[in-house]
Design goal:
Layout: E1 2-6, E2 10-15, E3 22-29, E4 36-42, E5 45-50, E6 56-58, E7 64-67, E8 70-72, H1 76-85, E9 90-94, H2 107-116, E10 118-124, E11 127-130, E12 134-138, E13 141-146, E14 151-159, E15 165-173, H3 178-183, E16 189-191, H4 192-200, E17 213-215, H5 231-244, E18 251-258, H6 262-274, E19 279-282, E20 296-301
Parallel strand pairs: 4-9, 11-18, 14-18, 16-17
Antiparallel strand pairs: 1-10, 2-3, 3-9, 4-5, 5-20, 6-7, 7-8, 11-19, 12-13, 13-18, 14-15
Helix pairs in contact: 1-2, 1-5, 5-6
């Protein structure tokens, strides 16, 4: 297995979930060992923020990264597409402060990456191999990773809502093509009373039935309904992959989550990386990407 990037740059414009304004970004091929990096101009200077655990600044409703005056919101769907397809190195040039919501899933980002093409680079890919179990709990919510021969996910959610209830995915092996076939089209979801509260707070101005599954007290309000009966839990797995992308490399282990979320995902990553006896980096001669440099750095003056 070798590192991969995209074959050529490609741009996309969509609506920002919170701003409601058009947002443009461009994916550029990345150098070997550079990882996933967000880049933007701020106050006449170009700043880069690496997609790494140290860069996380918020996990409420979405995962946001930041450093040196640059904040990038709602990164998890794009990161999930990159992680699910197996892109190791890419530079994401931003025209705003968030990644566009598109249709609320990762399908548009998968299409974008496939349109750019995939280039295999002449360097070995590293993998984080779990050596012993780690578990994080928060009341009835918990997430655990344990050793396995491949990357597997078991995920369960439980909502006291007639359209959701308890949904679970058991022992899903994330091999080549699985993300595109089974996960990437699952959309984000929210409840009508939460949407109204976000609007009153000046957030989610770009949210609509075109990019979010919205539920009232009894049913799904989207006229087209669900794309799959268990779309809710599939989207939670998609979010998990977007958060695991911050490891900077694929993981070999079985992640098991009960009522997880962005904050719990990040707690698991932090606990795992805090104890080197819990994992092993299966590596070539270079150091792991997420140890290479600071989470954010100033690139140049304008």
């Amino acid at each position: 297995m070798r590192q991969r990037t995209i074959a050529e740059k490609i741009s996309c414009t969509g609506i920002g979930l919170h701003s409601g304004a058009p947002v443009e970004f461009t994916l550029h091929p990345g150098r070997i060992d550079s990882g996933i990096v967000f880049s933007a101009e701020r106050a006449g200077q170009r700043v880069e923020v690496a997609a790494r655990p140290e860069s996380v600044v918020a996990t409420r409703h979405a995962t946001s990264l930041g450093g040196l005056g640059l904040t990038v919101g709602t990164v998890e769907h794009l990161l999930a597409a990159l992680y699910g397809i197996g892109i190791d190195n890419v530079r994401i040039e931003l025209g705003g402060s968030e990644i566009p919501i598109m249709d609320g899933s990762a399908a548009s980002f998968v299409f974008l990456i496939r349109a750019a093409g995939i280039y295999e680079q002449p360097a070995p890919r590293r993998c984080l191999k779990v050596r012993r179990p780690i578990e994080v709990t928060d009341g009835a919510r918990r997430i655990r990773v344990e050793p396995a021969r491949s990357f597997r996910v078991s995920y369960a959610i439980d909502f006291s809502h007639p359209a959701i209830g308890r949904q679970a995915i058991e022992n899903l092996e994330l091999g080549e093509g699985v993300f595109e076939r089974k996960l990437c089209r699952a959309r984000t979801f929210g409840f009508l009373h939460e949407v109204h509260a976000l609007w009153r707070a000046g957030l989610a101005r770009g949210g609509s039935l075109d990019n979010t599954i919205v539920l009232d007290e009894r049913r799904v309000l989207n006229p087209e309904g669900l794309r799959m009966p268990d779309e809710f839990v599939r989207h939670k797995v998609l979010d998990l992959l977007g958060d695991l992308a911050l490891l900077g490399m694929p993981i070999q282990g079985h992640v098991k989550a009960e009522r997880g979320g962005h904050a719990l995902h990040q707690q698991l990553i932090s606990e795992l990386l805090s104890d080197p006896t819990c994992y092993e980096i299966v590596t070539g001669p270079r150091r792991p990407a997420f140890y290479a440099e600071a989470p954010a750095r100033l690139v140049s003056n304008a």
